[in-house]
Amino acid sequence: MAITAQQVKELRDLTGAGLMDCKKALVESDGDSQGAIDYLRKKGAKVAELRSGRDANEGAVIAKMSADGKKGVILHLACETDFVAKNDDFVKFATDLTELALAENANSKEELEALTFEGVNVKDKIIEKVGSIGENISIGNFAVMTGENIASYIHAGNKIGVLVSYQSSNDDAANFFKGVSMHIAAMNPKILSYTEFDADFIAKETEAFASQIAKENEERVRLGKHLKNVPQYVSMVQLTPEVMATVEEGIKAQLAAEGKPEKIWHNIVPGKLDRFIADNTLLDQEYCLLDQFFALDTDKKVSQAIKEFGDDAEIVEFKRIELGD
What we know:
Blueprint: H1 5-15, H2 19-28, H3 33-51, E1 58-65, E2 71-79, H4 82-85, H5 88-103, H6 109-114, E3 116-117, E4 120-121, H7 122-133, E5 138-146, E6 149-154, E7 160-167, H8 173-187, H9 199-223, H10 241-257, H11 265-279, H12 282-287, H13 302-309, E8 314-322
Antiparallel strand pairs: 1-2, 2-5, 3-4, 6-7, 7-8
């Protein structure tokens, strides 16, 4: 039977498959729309099997929160190439799946794959998309967060998605914590606070930081640049009251040796202590959200910015997904 352009268009609108694929599917199914969809799905399964071993490191990361602001979802729909990742239909499919996960309270990748989407389960719909697009496509990563208040952020280009659970009575809290979400996207903290580190990790990283800066200093010597201080410590965990008391004594001894009047020491010592802490908490600044300098106000750490925003303001947890995670 003759296949009309309208039939091809309707099938394309339903499946997102290419025009030639839609026409061939309709020809193979004698113009039956459902038969054509089944044909495309079977083709997708074959393509999926052939491409299952291919790396799918590109894709779109979508972060959404529920209308009441108490639940958020991040989904990474993975594909093989940046070309497909930027396709509007692909991004829309990723967005639709994220919204479906929110609406149906899916709490895992497996639960999402079992949900119904456009008449079939999500897992089969993804296989259908593999057939129409011709690349390995899968749900690469999936995270859910619930809380009293959720903020979300998607980095430009759908490369990074962030969710933040927070508490605050400030009327502008949603905007402020969206800013915190942007910071998380940019600075990639791994944990909330240095209190989550274990002793073995800190010991290993102390040695690694010292070695790294020592190598940098070798290059600085060659270039005639000012040398960096090699840190004694890397985390607030190590800066015990005893350590800080010793540091303060050393600062005062230095001031005395320089002939600075003791009556002005109280104006100098706090700044030098702050500098010591900054130089000896490099691990915290790299890994810990609250100890990083706030991207939107680099004179303050994130913890200070939150405290100044509101006495009851607090981050409960955060999640960040990036392509390649």
